[in-house]
Design a protein that fits this description.
By secondary structure, the protein is of the alpha+beta class. It has one helix and four strands. A two-stranded antiparallel ribbon has the order 1-4. The protein has a two-stranded antiparallel ribbon with strand order 2-3.
């Protein structure tokens, strides 16, 4: 996906609203982790994708 995970999540959420599937899809996640770096002598927190290119969707597929 090349760093387009957040854009994909926004598109999926828009389609869930459009198709009225909010009762089926409970959450959408982009797995990230916090990474701390030292820059100019200061500790800086940055979010990094844990699984680049993955978007996790939790849905109840049984009707």
């Amino acid at each position: 996906m090349g760093g387009k995970e957040k854009k994909t999540v926004a598109f999926i959420e828009k389609e869930i609203d459009r198709l009225n599937l909010s009762d089926i899809v409970s959450q959408i996640l982009v797995p990230t982790e916090k990474v701390y770096q030292i820059r100019n002598g200061k500790k800086v927190a940055k979010e990094r994708n844990f699984f680049p290119g993955y978007v996790l969707v939790e849905a109840n597929l049984v009707w």
